[in-house]
Amino acid sequence: ASAAFFAIAEQNASGIGAAYAGGAAIAEDASTVWYNPAGMTRLTRPQLVFAGSYIDPSFKPSLNSASAITGSPIGGGAGKDPGQAAFVPSFYYTHPLTKDFSVGGGINAPFGLTTEYDSTWAGRYHAIKSDIEAMNYNVAAAYKFNDMLSGGVGVNYQHFKAELTQAVDFASICTVAAAGAFSAACGAGAGFTPNNNPNDGNAKVTADGNAWGYNLGLLAQLTSDLRVGAAYRSKITQKLSGNFDITTPGNVPGALLAGTGLVNSGAKADVVLPASMSISAYQQLGPKWAVMADVTRTNWSSIPELRIQFDSTQADSVVTLNLKNSYRYSVGGTYKPNDTWVLRAGIALDQSPVPDSANRTPRLPDADRTWYAIGAGVQASPSLSFDFGYVYIKMDNAQVNKTATGENTFRGNLSVDYTGSIQILSAQARWMF
Length: 433
Prior knowledge:
Blueprint: H1 32-35, E1 47-67, E2 86-96, E3 101-116, E4 129-144, E5 149-169, H2 170-177, H3 183-186, E6 200-221, E7 226-233, E8 236-247, H4 254-260, E9 265-273, E10 276-285, E11 289-298, E12 305-310, E13 317-320, E14 326-335, E15 341-350, E16 369-381, E17 384-402, E18 413-432
Antiparallel strand pairs: 1-2, 1-18, 2-3, 3-4, 4-5, 5-6, 6-7, 6-8, 7-10, 8-9, 9-12, 10-11, 11-14, 12-13, 14-15, 15-16, 16-17, 17-18
């Protein structure tokens, strides 16, 4: 995840070198299908773009404390860095049908996240593996109303899938249950040692779904050297369905599993992926220099919690997030020393939607980020060009503080500090016909 929370900003390589400043206004290649469909009216020839980004995140944990509801300390330490590197591809095609009307399409991955801890780390009851992926299919059309104003509209079909795993603390469950209906099965004779890994179970939820959304854009050429753009992407409501699978140590009594509903069953969840709005500007400063700026707002408050419902009798699994809406501010510039090369640089401040340490999840220990970006493009021939970019993203220090109450009763108390950074390498090829 290289934009705030689990959004992925890297949808081309031409814009990354300027930290996506001017993303809704620059409209320099077919990836404008994603960033602002109105920009297709600036592309006078059909073109095909293939892009890919290698994203390498690091979330280095430092454990302060971990204990169960019983007060017993949870062993296992902080474990390894849970950040997982990934390659994120994208593809775009645009075609002008007339001088004023263009169509295009794109395939990309706008949301994604993979973190994986050691199966024995001290926070294993909160998270082990988190793997989320969205694949988006976008078709769009644009019309040039006059020499100043263009508009665009797109339709999006999105496939979303997720896998979430964590350990289950049957020692604590049995200790608490020993005072109730399952006392005979969960007493000392059951052989439980509180918070001992052999007494752990393992739970996994896998689910997927498909949904529709839309995107809109306007592009205004205010002067020969200045243009501004506005782009909106709608929220997408995913109704996910799948399975809950649990494995248990041999000494867990069947009566406890039946009574709590901790058995294999169907699972479902609703996730409202957030809407976003971008305002961008592009200013040409003579034949060689240009500067850009962008402000993007993402409505993360549409995800107050992650709630998983089960077909069995077990209670909903809830992770409270209380996400707030966030902004990303970016500025950048380009320099063209000649007709073959273009050089880019940019910086961005990317707000995290996570409000505080109590609502931060170890599945994604997100924090505010600062981008430092550079890039270059080369025109290899009249019909072929290549773009490259590199970004170093520094994350603010973050802390997770969970208490063993409510939804976290059997997940335990957990306090972890994180230092994080992300490195991204992007490349792109563009063919014009």
